Amino acid sequence: MAKTVKRVHNFYSGPAALPLSILQQAQAELLDFNGTGMSIMEISHRSKDYEAVHNRAIELLKELLGIPAGYDVLFLQGGASLQFAMVPMNFLAPGKKAGYVMTGTWAEKAYAQAEKLGEVFIAASAKEGNYRRIPSPGELNYGPDTAYLHITSNNTIFGTQWQSFPETGAVPLIADMSSDILSKPFDVSKFALIYAGAQKNLGPAGVTVVIIRHDLLDRANKKVPTMLRYETYAKDNSLYNTPPTFNIYMVSLMLAWVKEQGGLAALHRRNQEKAALVYDAIDASNGFYVGHAQPDVRSLMNITFRLANEDLEKKFLDAAKQAGFVGLAGHRSVGGCRASAYNAVPYESCLALRELMFTFQKENW
Ligand SMILES: Cc1ncc(COP(=O)(O)O)c(C=O)c1O
């Protein structure tokens, strides 16, 4: 009989929940990958067995996101945080300015790195009121000669998410999609570059996915050191040096799982249903729970809310822990609670959270 696995309700913001089935597949293949008599971790990155995994991950990502011709999918290391520096190193030419839309802590961090490397400006900011909203397209202030416009599609800490993306014409649009890539369909062709650390919707931490349009590669600064140039990865199919092979293998399993679930449209519907379970509990609470994000820009991935005071929040988090929930404490810059309901978080976990919220409210109102 199969051993029952004890799994908690995992609402961590990242690294975050992975589907049980892919963990089990990785476990089953750990000692002998595909009849090779080796673990995927022990196989040369120059071997056919590994290359098939690597290329499968790229193909699946292209298929699932509908990436048009003229883009490359790259695997890098250094997390999304290294992208904060690589983007300006490669694309912020002297005499040009890059625009940043400030929608949270990660946008601030991206801006701070670019500021060290060239001229930057704030194209719009939602800082006032502690990042509860997303600037409207009309608020974005940048000229046609802007080097690029940088946005953060989902603000992991504050729980806001862009509902539609700006049309930037000839100005390259660059997005940090670390916390919502693969959560819903979107038009990749609007973007010149997209980057995402893997540890939310793509797999375990340790690999960063970059999707880059070819014309941007041609414009890149050629003086940047080899490992910090996108061109290095694009030229050699991300095999210039040893890539994080196990992580890319896990990404390939995760992408196959996304496809099995019905792709992005199906996952989007499920993510909407899951998030609605928790947002409804907030909205029906008569102010017992107060959402941080403005309702029109609520994130489907990170649901942020407060209770009346820190003592009550602590009591709620203690009750959650007792009931088998993890990762519900909010980030210190917002406080309160945050439920991260990425693709792999089951509907049942969101339902259980909703019930916990109702019960806790009844007992503590
Ligand atoms: C939107 C966003 N950008 C960037 C980062 C930083 O990613 P990393 O730790 O991979 O550098 C995070 C991490 O949570 C994030 O949520």
From TrEMBL:
SUPFAM superfamilies, A to Z: PLP-dependent transferases
Keyword Cytoplasm: yes
CDD domains: PSAT_like (cd00611)
GO molecular function term, any single one: pyridoxal phosphate binding
Regions annotated as coiled coil: none
Subcellular location field: Cytoplasm
Record PTM N6-(pyridoxal phosphate)lysine, positions in chain: K200
Pathway assigned in UniProt: Amino-acid biosynthesis; L-serine biosynthesis; L-serine from 3-phospho-D-glycerate: step 2/3
GO cellular component, one term: cytoplasm
Residue positions binding L-glutamate: S13, R46
Source species, domain of life: Bacteria
BP term (GO), one: L-serine biosynthetic process
The UniProt record lists the keyword Secreted: no
Family: Belongs to the class-V pyridoxal-phosphate-dependent aminotransferase family. SerC subfamily.
General function of this protein: Catalyzes the reversible conversion of 3-phosphohydroxypyruvate to phosphoserine and of 3-hydroxy-2-oxo-4-phosphonooxybutanoate to phosphohydroxythreonine.
NCBIfam families, A to Z: PRK05355.1, serC_1
Name of the protein in question: Phosphoserine aminotransferase
Native organism taxonomy: Bacteria, Bacillati, Bacillota, Negativicutes, Selenomonadales
